[in-house]
Amino acid sequence: MFRQVNRRQARSAVAAFASLALCGAALALTGPLANNASAATASPIKTTFVVMMENTDWSVVKGSRSFPYFNSLLPKGAHTENYRSGLHPSLPNYVTLEAGKTFGETNGSNLPSDHPINSTAHLTTQLSAAGVDWKYWAESLPGNGATCNTSDPGTPYSLDHNAQVYFNDVRNNPSYCMAHERPYSGLSGALSSNSVSGYNLIVPNDYDQGEKLAPGSGNMLRQADKWLSHEIPMIQASSAYKNGAAIMILWDEGGGTDTNPSGLLVLSPFAKVNYSNSIAYSHASTLRTMQTVFRVGPLLGAAANANDLSDLFTVPLVSSSGPTTTTVNTTPVCQG
Fold first, then answer.
1. Rounded Cα–Cα distance for residues 112 and 181 (Å)
2. What Å distances lie between residue 238 and 144, 229, 242, CA to CA?
3. Same structural domain for residues 101 and 248?
4. By the 8 A CB rule, do 177 and 165 touch?
5. For range 17-22, the mean pLDDT
6. CB-based burial of residue 201 (10 Å sphere; 0-12 exposed, 13-18 middle, 19+ buried)?
7. Could you report the per-residue pLDDT of 156-196, keeping only the tens digit for each?
8. Are 226 and 335 in a shared domain?
9. 3-state class of 77 per DSSP?
């Protein structure tokens, strides 16, 4: 009898232990692994440089004698024949590039104080939350980065090319704003010291973007092409570029109607060479590509339904499609 009771107790103890183990396993599955069962591995693209040009149709740029340097790059990278902004003027295009929608920003003359955007649903805030550093490199930035500039002094700097300061979470945090919104002259030092940020939005001044005629220039396109011929080789010579970066040269909008294609060229160790396609792209496509490369989400606005730029590359933007969610019992019943 004594032995029989012990055996029963032993069997009961084993069963209880197994129950507790299974219960513990179920509880463990409610943690991070449960909701990230097959997370994507890091993108081979470590650094991005988005270089903004202004107000020119692709039909004007491609093959233009006023744009010889840029056209010499086409066989060295991948470009699209069907990138359309669909918006005028500049401000809603820059806001869409940042957030996937315009938030009603349709007037390029609005100051941030006139039409602030009270939302954290935008790319650079997602990047900061994920620990990815970003910089807005602006040529002719007022105050040379010593303040968080929210005024528009006029040519050669255009505030409506700076969507980030229209968002309250950037504008109302001066130290954060100044840490990320920097004069373009600082990029060369960041490249040479190999301390460049992950996401770099490069905005030349009105002259060097091809928006306005520079004094003594005589040709807006030629001025923009000259700027590119000096600055793109500097980026390509950097360790950041050689170790896995992508340069994207694009136009905020066409120079004609909203439906005219504007340009986008990708240069990268991972870009297809002498390649072009006619896939429908927009600023939401560039935004989606940035979110995919840096693995931040949720997808913002129109980015959720936009084509990404993966066809222009020889490698996937990430090694798998992204995190998948598994359904587990989050409230296991554990009886004593």
1. 15
2. 24, 15, 6
3. yes
4. yes
5. 36
6. buried
7. 999 999 999 999 999 999 999 999 999 999 999 999 999 99
8. no
9. coil
Residues 7 and 70 both lie in one domain: no
Over range 286-296, report the average pLDDT.
97
Q: In which domain, by residue range, is 29 found?
A: 1-40+323-336
- CATH code, 128: 3.40.720.10
In terms of domains, do 308 and 331 share one?
Answer: no
Tens of pLDDT along 251-263?
Answer: 998 887 667 899 9
Q: Are 171 and 177 in contact (CB under 8 A)?
A: yes
Cβ contact 273:78 at 8 Å: yes
Does 317 map to a domain?
no
Are residues 128 and 334 in contact, defined by beta-carbon separation less than 8 angstroms?
A: no
Tens digit of pLDDT for each residue in 79-136? Answer: 999 999 878 789 999 999 999 999 998 887 789 998 999 999 999 999 999 999 999 9
Determine the Cα–Cα distance for residues 156 and 205; give it in Å rounded to an integer.
5
The two tokens of residue 309 are 């730029």
Same domain, 188 and 300: yes
Kindly state the tokens that stand for 184.
């373009």
End-to-end CA distance of the chain: 26
CA distance 16 to 3: 20
Residue of higher predicted confidence among 5 and 152? 152
Residue 225's H or E segment, with its range, is: helix 220-236
Type of residue found at 41: T
For the chain, strand residue ranges (E) read 47-53, 78-83, 134-138, 181-183, 199-203, 245-251, 262-267, 275-277
Query: Within this chain, do residues 334 and 294 fall inside the same structural domain, yes or no?
Result: no
Total domains in the fold of the chain: 2
| Percent of the chain whose pLDDT exceeds 70 | 82
DSSP letter at 282 equals -
Report CA Rg, the chain.
Answer: 25
Alpha-carbon 178 to chain mean position? 19
